[in-house]
Amino acid sequence: MKLRPDEIASILKSEIERYEVDVDVEEVGTVIQIGDGIARIYGLMGCVALEKLELPHGVTGLALNLEEDNVAAVLFGEWEKIEEGDTVKRTGQVMSVPVGDALVGRVVDPLGIPLDGGAPIETTETRPLEFKAPGVVDRQPVKEPLQTGIKAIDAMIPIGRGQRELIIGDRGTGKTAICVDTILNQKGQDVICIYVAIGQKASTVRQVEETLRSNGAMDYTIIVSAPASEAAPIKYMAPYAGCAMGEYFLYNGKHALLMYDDLSKHADAYRQMSLLVRRPPGREAYPGDVFYLHSRLLERAVKLSDELGAGSLTALPVIETQAGDVSAYIPTNVISITDGQIFLQGDLFYSGVRPAINAGISVSRVGGNAQRRAMRKVAGRLRLDLASYRALEAFAQFASELDDATQQQLRRGQRLVATLNQPQYSPWPFEEQVAAIWAATNGYTDGIEVSDVQRFNSELIEYLRAGGRVLEAIRESGDLSDETEAELRSAVESFQESFQGTDQDPADPAVGSATGAGGDGGTESNASDGGAQAQAAQDADAGADAGDAEPTTAG
Predict the structure, then answer these.
(1) Cis-peptide into 355, omega within 30 deg
(2) Burial of 225 by CB count in 10 Å (0-12 exposed, 13-18 middle, 19+ buried)?
(3) Which residues are catalytic?
(4) How far apart are CA 148 and CA 151, in angstroms?
(5) Residue 46 near residue 90 (C-beta atoms within 8 A)
(6) Cα 238 to Cα 242: distance, rounded to the nearest angstrom
(7) Which of 98, 342, 361, 421 could form a disulfide with 112 if both were Cys (CB 3.0 to 4.6 A apart)?
(8) Nearest CA-CA partner of 208 in 171, 245, 259
(9) What angle do CA 27, 31, 34 make, to 5 degrees?
């Protein structure tokens, strides 16, 4: 059988058309310098900023500096095994981390690798480390409260879902304790908590994990740990990794709470990396973009609009100060980025005030919008009363005789401080906070010894739980109506008659001369003198704080 030439041509054409060659093109480079976890790589001409790079021995690189003839990359993993001349491959992907429900209840490093000895995390979803924060149109105002369970914060410095509230103070003043208490209080609130530990001892992180696990809080918590023993790149990556994990829940219409503990160590790690890649140093040897480092991170905290699912991402960054100096470089940067700060003062902490919150310079710029109506009503006078007390306390040290109104105000202040004192790991529900603060601000604790105030409050709450629907009415309505307030007043007065102080004669039914009506007179008369006195009291308090000379409290 002979084939005609045209048949041969058609067969050849069809074979050529079907012919395919799988060409795998990879852009590779070569390590030309290695040291201190930084590699300089030649040949990656198409590399993009923050791109993930593959190196031998399972080491991952992150492209940080794109220079004219080389790329400076920070390395994650056993970078000591990398040598000059090793091959580096581009992945074409921006650095990302695994996200999803599978991470909840786990302790992971910033790369998403488990550190708790559990099974590998099985999730197919990832999110980039860096992600553009939502614009103004995509947001809505912060108006939904995020209860911390800490009376002083929920009453005077309220935090809302989607807010950025800074926790700032010296070492050992209870910053981490506020974070842990806030996590414990989110039980049953449909909030996923992400605690990012940056540069802390591994034993400290383990202790936090044990506390959360023993209280059942790990069921809704992710811990991202970059301990002090890790290299600077891991610490640099940690808060961005935690934020990416939180954004998974945010963009799925859920609520997440992020705690960065702490960003001072994060800035130190970034400074170390920047100096190693030879970026020009600026103030305190930090690079010029250290403000942008934190602003682009914290700007991702948001309350999304209803059209985008109404999810929220709340950020509680922590900053450690030196000797109470809030005017240092990194503290002022983060203060200017956030929506308020909770300032913890060493003097108050060591005098027994826990949490040691300085009401004079602590503020929430969201304010009453993030409070329920009942708390707004009872806490309205609280900050003013405390500020006036601080100013009067400083004045009273030098005065030989004080008039009755001043003595009454000092007594009220001491008992307010004692009312706001709270042991660690014991968050209070919203309705119980309202009842205790209402009793204190209305003078029902004025006739009780300061040492008995906490016992009075705890026994009062037990009494209210046992009888009546007052607490339930406050919890369900979120308001303190005239009817509910009358029931609360009746219940508190009834309890007050039966309360036995430490030094009280059992035969004497009266706890003291200051009741809800009589005890209020001194404060009301002083407060009604006009806004000038209130402003003067706050200015005096702020002045004393700025000079770090606020006297210790009797509480």
Answers:
(1) yes
(2) buried
(3) 365
(4) 8
(5) yes
(6) 6
(7) 98
(8) 259
(9) 145
Both structure tokens of 169: 């103070």
Contact 161, 146 (CB under 8 A): yes
DSSP state of 380: T
Verdict on whether the full-model pTM lies above 0.90:
no
Beta strands in 269-379, from DSSP E residues, in sequence order? 302-303, 312-321, 340-344, 363-364
Q: Which two tokens stand for residue 142?
A: 């912060």
Q: What's the pLDDT at 226? A: 96
Mapping DSSP to helix (H, G, I), strand (E, B) and coil, where does residue 151 land?
Answer: helix
Residues 6+ apart with CB under 8 A from 397: 551
pLDDT value of position 517: 39
* Closest to 387 (Cα-Cα) out of 408, 420, 409: 409
How far is the C-alpha of 226 from the C-alpha of 260, rounded, in Å?
11
Q: How many residues does the chain have?
A: 555
Spell out the alpha helix ranges (H) of 201-345: 202-214, 232-250, 263-276, 290-298, 329-337
How much is the pLDDT for 383?
Answer: 83
Query: Model confidence over 317-330: pLDDT tens digits?
Result: 999 999 999 999 99
- Report pLDDT digits (tens) over 392-415: 887 887 766 788 888 888 889 999
The string of DSSP codes covering 403-469 is -HHHHHHHHHHHHHHHHH---TT-PPPHHHHHHHHHHHHTTTTTTS-GGGHHHHHHHHHHHHHHSSS
192 backbone dihedrals φ, ψ, rounded to 5°: -90, 125
Is the previous residue joined to 482 through a cis bond, with omega within 30 degrees of 0? no
| CA-wise closest residue to 103 among 133, 80, 126 | 126
Token pair, residue 118, equals 């559990």
d(CA 365, CA 253): 25
* Residue segments in the chain with a per-residue pLDDT below the cut of 50: 506-555
CB 312 within 8 A of CB 255: yes
Q: What does the pLDDT read at residue 8?
A: 77
Residues 6+ apart with CB under 8 A from 466: none
Q: How many CB atoms lie within 10 A of CB 229?
A: 9
- Residue at 203: amino acid letter: S
483 exposure class (CB count in 10 Å sphere: 0-12, 13-18, 19+): exposed
> What local confidence, expressed as pLDDT, does residue 22 receive?
65
